[in-house]
Q: What sequence folds into this?
């Protein structure tokens, strides 16, 4: 098996590595391999997936669920659920929403079940869930003692929505704060309650903290296959990440046909060729690693460590 490593300009490592790409390109396998390498090198490492159909349990060949689970020495894994994200939101922001609602409706007149359902409904808004997911990643990186966090993100479109959330949240909160500040001034503020504008100022600060964390502590690794739809999506991802000034760690081109020993494989190799050239062009000054198609399942910590060490060397991780 030959590993084609192309070295380009380097960027300094950051503690959080976001691994993204179109669904089915091998994100989880590459993420797991890199995390296994980090842990084997002595770094306390967490691999986390927010994918709605997680597969870390299959890859590491042990049960991993909605709690941080030890996989090996220095390596933990976490398949975070939507329920866990909602619970984090309630802990961080639930009281804020309750206080805001108390300015607008008689919350105390609602029975406990109705209040709970109302809070669950508000917390289920996609933008809030996405912002909360970023806040969870920030907390894990800053307060849980990990040297490295590898985030196997959801498919590319959802990931790019996450990157846009801090900016959108700030914009909408600022607009809302002005409206509710007027309500406070004309006597809608309840005695003993925080002002709505003050609560929203706190949200703005939290959002800016998350945005600063993403800019300063994170970098992005793209995984792609040499296929037409994937190549188009990679182009959009690169443009968006550069717009946000988020460092691109590199590009992994996966499932490449190298040893074509049959007519069918020769045909696939010929089909892949122009897409390989285009992906390398998109890689630009970033580091690129080309992985051959594997005809064996990549599972288990030892096999992952082997592949991870090759990826880490090629990408200067």
A:
């Amino acid at each position: 098996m030959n590993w084609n490593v192309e070295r380009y300009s380097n960027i300094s490592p950051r503690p959080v590595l976001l691994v993204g790409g179109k669904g089915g390109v091998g994100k989880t396998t590459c993420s797991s391999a890199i995390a296994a390498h980090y842990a084997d090198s002595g770094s306390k490492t967490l691999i986390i997936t927010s994918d709605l159909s997680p597969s870390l349990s299959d890859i590491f060949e042990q049960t991993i669920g909605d709690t941080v689970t030890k996989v090996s020495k220095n390596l933990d894994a976490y398949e975070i659920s939507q329920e866990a994200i909602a619970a984090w939101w309630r802990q961080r922001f639930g009281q804020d929403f309750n206080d805001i609602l108390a300015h607008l409706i008689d919350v105390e007149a609602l029975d406990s079940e109705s209040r709970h359902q109302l809070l669950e409904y508000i917390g289920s808004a996609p933008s809030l869930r996405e912002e909360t997911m970023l806040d969870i990643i920030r907390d894990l990186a800053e307060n849980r003692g990990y040297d490295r966090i590898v985030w196997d993100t959801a498919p590319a479109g959802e990931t790019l929505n996450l990157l846009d959330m801090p900016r959108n949240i700030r914009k909408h909160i600022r607009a809302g704060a002005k409206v509710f500040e007027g309500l406070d001034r004309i006597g809608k503020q309840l005695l003993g309650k925080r002002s709505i504008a003050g609560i929203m100022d706190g949200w703005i600060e939290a959002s800016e903290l998350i945005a600063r964390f993403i800019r300063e502590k994170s970098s992005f690794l793209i995984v792609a296959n040499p296929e037409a739809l994937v190549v188009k999506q990679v182009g959009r991802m690169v443009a968006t990440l550069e717009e946000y000034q988020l460092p691109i760690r590199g590009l992994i081109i996966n499932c490449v046909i190298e040893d074509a020993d049959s007519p069918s494989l020769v045909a696939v190799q010929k089909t892949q060729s122009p897409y390989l050239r285009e992906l390398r062009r998109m890689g630009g000054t970033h580091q690129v690693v080309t992985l051959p198609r594997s005809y064996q399942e990549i599972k288990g910590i030892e096999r992952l460590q082997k592949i991870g060490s090759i990826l880490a060397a090629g990408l200067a991780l």
Summary: The CA atoms of residues 85 and 91 lie 10 Å apart. The chain has one domain: 4-315.
